Amino acid sequence: MRAVGVGSGKVNVQRAAALQALAAALRRVAYGPERLRECLGVRYPDDVGLLNHAPAVARCAGSAAADIAARLFYLENPESPAAVRRLLGAADTRALTEAGLLRAAAGRLRARLRVDVHGGLLLLADRRFAAPDATALGLPRGDMVYPPGTDSVMLAEAVPTREGERVLDLCTGSGIQALQVAPRAAGVTAVDIGLRAAALARCNAALNGIVGVTVRQGDLYAPVRGEQFDLVIANPPFVPARRRGPAYHSGGPRGDRVLRRVVAGLEAHLRPGGRAIAISHLALRRGETLQSAVGAVAARLRRSRADRRPRARYTDRPRRGAIAVCPRGGPGRVRARGARLARLPASATDRRGCRAVAGRRARTAASPRGTRWRPALASDPALAAATGDGEELVGG
User: Fold this and answer.
1) Of 45 and 336, the one with more pLDDT
2) DSSP per-residue string spanning 209-272
3) Overall pTM surpassing 0.70 (yes/no)
């Protein structure tokens, strides 16, 4: 993997050495997506939940080092010290305990963070099956850093990376999106509002030997004020919640509170011809259609814009697309009255109902500045059958 800067904030030398030893041990036993599929039958990280956790542990009950790794770091099962030494060796077991990644209790060793996988990446995150360990790896306290889930994997598979781009990853969490695009990018900036998430994203860069990903802690675009990028990626919190909850999932009453702010900031932070892609859920009220819901989001964004630029309007003129909503189980390409929208792989559609959202800042002679952000809505085929062809929403 091409080395690319760990950026602002540092992982201390002892901890970095322990993380690199962990990575070497896990790669020796082929700890990765294929091994986990073979051992557990999982496609997405959250295919194993609380209800099927015990059967998963039983299924992976072998004494081979690969089975021990899956139980210890993926299923979060406590293991005997002898088994952990068989996996890591005595010296690395001691080093990882001193670094704060392993803890001894009741004669067993337990991982204080879990290790997920995506492609060739190893990704530390807080535990899913046990209470998060607030002081694991010397991380700052704060909201838990949720492990990469189905939405994270779908987004990573859908992101169309190009050589030499400057990339901004918002709501980075564990850093999966930033680390995924780093080998091809000219530079990557990852941002998260959580101090713990930003620190863990830096640890994941060290774990994978990736240097050059700058991780900044702050609220969305605040840490990159005045900067522009070729590609903006975002996996904002999208769980509908009337009250504010943990930063990793609380998306406001409709689930789109953070998504609206992400879209609102694109015009200022995308270079001409730049692209944006995000993934989100959106709660629909009884009788509400996807078109009307996204139109309402656009209307609220227009009202919030202080510069009073021309308002968005519905049109059936074809445009190269900014927002493509992939329906559950639908095709990888979604059309809106002849508009050519961003092509997303079939894996970008989610059986749980995630909606993949892509974007482009398009060149247009109509804009006095030469460019402007144009979001476009492609309708679900089921909605198109009921309401006619999908409409395109062009934002001024």
Assistant:
1) 45
2) T---EEEEESSTTGGGTT--EEEEEE----B--SS---TTTB--TTS-HHHHHHHHTHHHHEEE
3) yes
